[in-house]
Design a protein that fits this description.
By secondary structure, this protein is an alpha/beta fold. The protein contains 15 helices and eleven strands. Helices cover 38% and strands 13% of the residues. The longest helix is centred in the C-terminal third of the chain and has 21 residues. Bound molecules: glutamine (GLN).
């Protein structure tokens, strides 16, 4: 068998379809890698070996009968543990859902398995998706495979670490304000936040419903595209899913002719690490040399993004998380009085960051403050969306850093939530505007840490992002560099 743990999803699929390897053998290769790498990294909260092997056996039987294989046949993958999996625990890395077994699959999960993927495990995260480091998990932090003294980013921390360490070629995360793109940048991966509504949220445990999107992380642009295409398209179970038909599986050619790229010059300012600045500028130079027209662009209101997000996301989370009351789901601290039982169950079940957001969200929605915070934040959100609309009248893509710096040491931000919120400065504005955004690897720091550049596109123009990403992937020649 010529496949290795670093083979791409596309290579695995071709090898399976060509009869060179069975799905069961691919699953075994991945499971062995999980056994070797998961104990130190803590990327997966649970391994769903029986489910993966059962699906592999079905596909191998189909193959033996000469049946046509689905497009991702035999591709092992993991999903963030806030995506519901029928009969498999789905904890959101929270004590409050420690024993929760959903009675249904998230649409994104059932579409991937329907396309032939093998679900190998559930990935660690910051509790309910709230965080940027992977350290807010009730089940321990995940480590960065490139440097285990550093964070992998978050909140899709385990998804990113599993892909970067060669456990699986691809994973699903969720992105509310950056949770796919930021860990992708910290772990040297492609990470896509699709257009809001392009992928169903059915079965994604809600954090902030007007922002949440499911998106893929992968080691190659093509794999990220394939996973995105497989999960895209309308879903009657999610009323916010868009009616547009699913994305065709064939990736766009990496051609730049006629492409106008806006470099977000003010995002390359003093607060950005100089190595990150130089690598993003280098990516812009490659695009220009490859035939794109690169000019400067600006988003004058994007600086309000972090403040806006940290009003709107907690407001929505305080309402969404009200359902975890110790009665209907998960952890219960029994008390004589109902109100006391709510307080005790929520007090014991939620971690500090979740409590902080529920409190802040309840405050900004309270009578008397609603106008000062919530309504104002909604207006700022509209102003940011209008900035993007103006920029996209002139260019087809926007380019800037995904994060102000590379992965930082575990515990560095110890206890200072505000400094962590500021890490989301570049990933939040496209999320507020509902636009697709892709983090692409653009090089390494002198210390060997990966750096990501963010491409933002017009609504439903994910293909344009992948045209540029595919070009950069070839031009920068970063493929094949892996952590040990
Ligand atoms: N880091 C951001 C937060 O803590 C984004 C999280 C996310 O996208 N789920 O809210």
């Amino acid at each position: 068998m010529s496949l290795t743990i670093w083979s791409s999803a596309a290579e695995i699929r071709d090898a399976v379809a060509g009869g060179e390897v069975s799905c069961a053998e691919v699953a075994r290769l991945s499971l062995d890698r999980v056994s070797a790498r998961n104990p130190p990294l803590n990327a997966l909260l649970r391994v769903t070996e029986a489910r993966a092997l059962a699906r592999a056996a079905e596909l191998d039987a189909l193959c033996a009968r000469g049946g046509a294989l689905p497009p991702l046949a035999g591709v092992p993958l993991v999903v963030k543990d806030n995506l519901c999996t029928r009969g498999e625990r789905t904890t959101c890395a929270s004590r409050i859902l420690e024993d929760y077994e959903p009675p249904y699959d998230a649409t994104a999960v059932s579409r991937l398995e329907g396309a032939g993927a093998l679900l190998l495990g559930k990935a660690n995260l910051d509790e309910f998706g709230m965080g940027s480091t992977g350290e807010n998990s009730a089940f321990g932090p995940t480590l960065n495979p490139w440097d285990p003294a550093r964070v992998p980013g978050g909140s899709s921390s385990g998804a990113a670490a599993a892909v970067a360490s060669g456990m699986v070629p691809c994973a699903l995360g969720s992105d509310t304000g950056g949770s796919v793109r930021q860990p992708a940048a910290f772990c040297g991966l492609y990470g896509l936040r699709p257009t809001y509504g392009r992928v169903s949220r059915y079965g994604l445990v809600a954090f902030a419903s007007s922002l949440d999107q499911v998106g893929p992380l992968a080691r190659t642009a093509r794999d990220a595209f394939l996973a995105f295409a497989a999960i895209s398209g309308p879903d009657p179970a999610d009323s916010t899913s868009l009616p547009d038909p699913p994305e065709p599986l064939e990736p766009p050619a990496p051609r730049l002719e006629g492409l106008r790229v806006g470099l977000l010059a003010d995002q390359l300012g003093a607060d950005v690490d100089p190595e990150v600045r130089a690598l993003v500028a280098g990516a812009a130079e490659r695009l220009r040399a490859g035939g794109a027209e690169v000019r400067e662009a600006a988003l004058p209101h994007a600086g309000y993004g972090v403040a806006t997000y940290y009003v709107l996301a907690p407001a929505e989370c305080s309402s969404n998380l009200a359902r975890f009351d110790g009665v209907r789901y998960g952890l219960r601290e029994p008390r004589e009085e109902l109100l006391e039982q709510y307080e005790a169950s929520r007090g014991a079940g939620f971690g500090d960051e979740v409590k902080r957001r529920v409190l802040a969200g309840t405050f900004v929605l309270s009578a008397g403050y609603r106008g000062a915070f919530y309504e104002r934040a909604r207006r700022a959100r509209a102003a940011i969306a209008a900035d993007f609309a103006r920029a996209f009248a002139e260019v087809d893509l926007l380019l800037g850093p995904t994060t102000p710096g590379p992965a930082f040491p575990l515990g560095r931000e110890g206890g200072d939530p505000l400094s962590l919120y500021l890490c989301d400065v570049f990933t939040i504005p496209p999320a507020l505007a509902g636009l697709p955004a892709l983090s692409v690897p653009c090089g390494f720091t002198a210390a060997g840490l990966p750096v990501g550049a963010q491409l933002v596109g017009r609504r439903l123009e994910e293909r344009t992002l992948f045209r540029a990403a595919g070009f950069l992937e070839e031009a920068l020649g970063l493929a094949g560099r892996h952590p040990s």
